[in-house]
Task: structure prediction
Amino acid sequence: MPRIIKNENIVEDEWRLITLAAGETPTDVALPNAWLLVPLAVWLARREELVARQTPLGVWLDSHEGPEALASDLDRLSVVGVHFPKFTDGRAYSSARLLRERYHYRGEIRALGDVLQDQLFYMRRCGIDAYVLRADKDIEKALAGLRVFSDSYQAAVDQPQPLFRRRSAAEAA
Result:
C-alpha cells in the first residue's frame, strides 16, 4: 500500500486513485470495490451510482477544473484532490483556498501530481492537508520540509491573522 503525508504524519493510503486511460470514458471506467478518488468527470457522470455504494467518496479536480463544480456535493465527499500537472502550475493552490474559504470544506484536501518537498509548506498554507509525493521523492525528507518555517507573516488558510495582528493581540493581553 502506498504511503502519503496526511496531517503531518506518514500514513498508508487507503484510497484508490482512478484515472481515465486513453479511449476510456467516465461512464465505462471500471470502479473497483474500494475507497475511490475519482476524476470530476466520473463523479458528474456516475454520482448516484457512487453515492449508492455507501462508502467514503473522493473526487479530484484537474488543474483546469474549479471547485465550484463540487460546491453542492462537498458534504458527501471525504476527500477532494487537487491536481498539480507540473510543479510550476499553481492553479490547484487557488482551488484549495476556495474550497476552504469560500465553500467552507472541512474534509481532506489532497495534493496530487507533481508534488515536491519545496511546495508542501505553501500547500498547507492554502488548506491542503494530505500530499501524494511524486514517486521519485523521499517522503521522510518531504515531511521534514513541512517544518522548515516556524511562523509566517501573511494571513492564510492555516493562520487567518497576519503576524502584526497576532503580536498586537499578545501585547494587549
Notes: The chain has one domain: 3-172. The helical segments are 40-52, 91-102, 120-125, 139-145, 163-172. The radius of gyration is 17 Å. The chain has a mean pLDDT of 92.
